[in-house]
Design goal:
By secondary structure, the protein is α+β, with helices and mostly antiparallel strands. The protein has one domain: Transposase IS200-like (Alpha-Beta Plaits), CATH 3.30.70. The protein contains eight helices and four strands, in the order βαββαβαααααα. A hairpin with a 3-residue loop joins β2 and β3. The radius of gyration is 19 Å and the shape is globular. The chain starts with 13 loop residues before the first strand and ends in a 33-residue tail after the last helix. It comes from Viridibacterium curvum. This is Transposase. InterPro entries: Transposase_17 (IPR002686), Transposase_17_sf (IPR036515).
């Protein structure tokens, strides 16, 4: 069976996941993290892709963006992947693949899922036991959103700006959000969406006009027979 193209709906955010091959380490030390973040900024600029939120973990990464057109994320990830693999292999005297196949991505409905996706991404180091608070992890967009640092990589979505009329209001509202513990259903839904590449959100809340493929899997089993009129 042929592989479905990546889902794209104009104007809706995308949650991106990229893992190391066999979950191997993709960032060995601080120099690797810095190099990748610089390359991500450059690749995003060249592809006109805004980065709303991100986290760089030792063996994987997440990015949240709203691409301007269907091929923009693919162009960015291709540029980024080639640059970083070349850098990583040269620096660490290795060869061969670094990534676990193609990156994965899914479309999310912004009203219900944008800010949970921010939190899901930026709490990743806490869930992994690397830090006690998301603000303590230096390789994510969390410190930017809390007003603790300025990250030139980040271009926030309107949903983040709606948290308050001033930077202080937005940062305070976001701090309350990111410090709260999400429900197990929220985490399960975000994880499933990130891995399966189906749209996250109610279909009738998001415009399907312009979607390049179906947004949910087909029902399992044979279709039910309809009773006669």
């Amino acid at each position: 069976m042929s592989r479905l193209p990546r889902l794209h709906i104009p104007g809706l955010p995308q949650l991106i996941l990229q893992r190391g091959n066999n979950r191997s380490t993709i960032f060995v030390d601080e120099a690797d993290f810095r190099a990748f973040r610089d390359m991500l900024r450059e690749s995003a600029r060249e592809s006109a892709v805004p980065i709303h939120a991100y986290v760089l973990m030792p063996d994987h990464l997440h990015i949240l963006t709203t691409p301007p057109e269907a091929g923009a994320v693919g162009a960015m990830m291709q540029r980024l992947g080639r640059r970083y693999v070349r850098y990583f292999n040269n620096r660490h005297a290795r060869s061969g693949t670094l990534w676990d196949g193609r990156y994965r991505s899914t479309v999310i409905e912004p009203v219900a899922w944008l800010l949970p996706a921010y939190r899901y991404i930026e709490q990743n180091p806490v869930r992994a036991g690397i830090v006690g608070e998301a603000a303590h992890y230096p390789w994510s967009s969390c410190r930017h959103h809390l007003g603790l640092a300025t990250d030139p990589l980040v271009t926030d979505h309107a949903g983040y700006w709606a948290l308050g009329n001033t930077p202080f209001d937005r940062q305070a509202a976001y701090r309350a959000l990111v410090e709260a513990t999400p429900g197990s259903d929220e985490l399960a839904d975000l994880r499933h969406a990130a891995h399966r590449s189906w749209m996250l959100g109610e279909a009738d809340l998001a415009s399907e006009a312009g979607a390049n493929r179906r947004i949910a899997p087909l029902p399992k089993g044979r279709p039910r027979k309809q009773p006669p009129d």
